[in-house]
Please model this.
Amino acid sequence: MSATEFFQNVVNALQWGSFYALIALGYSMVYGVLLLFNFAHGDIFMVGAYIGFFVATAFLALFASGVGIITLPSWAILVLVILATMFLTSFVGMAVERIGYRPLRHAPRASAAITGLMIGIIFETSILAMFGAQRMKFPELLPGLASASQPTFGGVIISWQKILIVGVALVLMLLLQWFVSNTKWGMAMRAMAFDFAAVPLMGVPLNRIAALTFALGSALAGAAAVLYSMAYPVLDPYMGITVGWKAFVAAILGGRGSIKGAALAGFLLGFIEIFAATVFPSTYRDLIAYSIILIILVFRPHGMFGEEHTARLRL
Amino acid sequence: MASKLTNKAAFFKQTPALGWLLTGLVIAGLEMAVGKPLARFLGIGKIPALFGFLIIFKKPSLQFPFIFNDLGIIAGVIVYDILIYLLPLVLVTWLTYRLTNRVAGVLYRKSALLSVLLHILLLYLVLRLWTDISTYRELVTRLTMIAVIVTLSLNVINGYMGEFSTSHPGFMAVGAYVSSVFTMALFTQSDYFGPARLPASLAPVFFPIALILGGAVAAFSALAVAIPSFRTRGDYLAIISLAYMFIVKSLFENLEVVGGPRGLGGQPDLASFPVIFVWMALGIWIINNFVRSTLGKALNAVRDDELAADAMTVNTRKTKMTAFLFGAFWAGLAGGLLAHVLRYINPGSFGLQKLAEVLAMVYFGGLNSVLGSIVGAVSINLLGEALRPLELYKWIVIPVILILVMIYRPTGLIAFREFDLVEIVKPKEIKEGDDATA
Model:
């Protein structure tokens, strides 16, 4: 592999990893605060992509130059689409929490994992029933971006789209980090992660914090869905499975409830996958990615940034 | 009024297992004798394979009012079910519960073991007669019996050990592939492994060896999960086992010797109904004895409090390891059986969907309970088959049912119950004029 090829792969891996990182954050926060595997999260991502599709279509019809009522520049439409999708997807997450997890708050956590799994299946089936098996094409939000002259660096093509995707992802991660470490609600979330039993007794509203955690995680999944659909503009009801489960593994790899860990592990997974696919036949990608994860977990059982804890699935 | 009704139906509670089996025999016999003419008379055509659910749900129209099929046919199916199933069920149990109680008492006093064996034989006879009606019914029953083994083996890990393992499809895949390669290489002429090496008549003899080999390799591969995850406590078994599942799937997808992603087909038809029944009975018996042994009790202790168990001289690591490998063995064995029923396997079928299915069966039926696993496997399987005509909507109905079960009974329908065959074959006490609530 030449140096150019290598750096090209690094750029690709950064884009691929930012999807994983954004989704992994949702898993990681829910797992950190509520000690719960939110197996529906991958499908929340998928629903987010469909929400993004409708939001993007609607906003393009409303605001795009030439057709819209008010003309907005396309970057503003993009920002609006991302924000609206994040907002709407957060309600999906809160609904999942309300229906699937809140009634099971004092039940075995494994049972909650089953409800999550089942809600995911319901999402997939409903989307399939509503839109059929035909794949939908995500509209182009920034026309001209692909045809514009792309920045290159010593032969490595760094497209505008990749800069945009990685940039938005990083901004969102920093915002989340700021929210969790600097606001009152973030402090409540951290406290809950520290002691799930005692903190509600101190007047912290457990249900609202849980809903907030789900809302934040799902909003990030919604943003990831829009970015993902910009890069791979084909929607199908099972897109959440492959990406979602890998992001789940990345979340655990990062360490329980660690935002930094989940983000870095997401990027790491992206690097592993991209480089595995360039060195070996691409069918070996999953095999190598999961094997490396297995090996890392053998040596760092609490993840890369996780603290040792004795939590386990209660019965 | 209510107590009067319970009084009237008290014989249900006083019917021993022998009585139920006798009823089953009568029903199966009745269906064999008059099922076909009755079905034709009622306008259904042929005998409804699964209590008529397939007929009732056929061609669902989602417009109000939700009419699934011709009302006449639905009425016919209901009449059929009442005449063939419900009526004999009530009548035979009511007429014979005193007699069967007496017989069960005699048998039980003579030898409990003999009585148990007789019951199992009767169960086999009932199932055999019932499934003789249609090949579809037989196939569903065979798959259900395999599901019972899988569910039980996962319950050992997720229920009795209290961990959350997600690697069962992986174990099944390993078992399925290993046993398939074994039987195909020895007894069939195939593109993969060349000509048959042994005469096909020897195949039934070697089939158990193939299955046990498959289970053993699955158990051995389970070490890859067990060794890292049992060093520390926590949820890491869940993640490591998930990674294991994906690794196994990806591995078989890349193994061109066994067909790669196209899969492996043409296994010899060895997993017939009696063979699967014997393996299921054996599986239930061995797993039940395992969880009721000292080791099983130690396993429960580890689940409830590992530190305390350790203090009480339980070797926690060894206990968990044994149970995990034990569960993996049976999952691999069931995978081998499955491969020889379907006679085609591909890596894609041992993925997340299989995982959701197996987990659903365990948690629906009930944790820490052999009976619960049997109930869970049978009900989810039959439900899946009964709702098959709903096509896509089946995957909304079943998850909704499961979510409701989880919300109202978080540990499943029949959780934390001991399963004792000797207790089951015991005659019931007959209480005269007493409302049988006890």
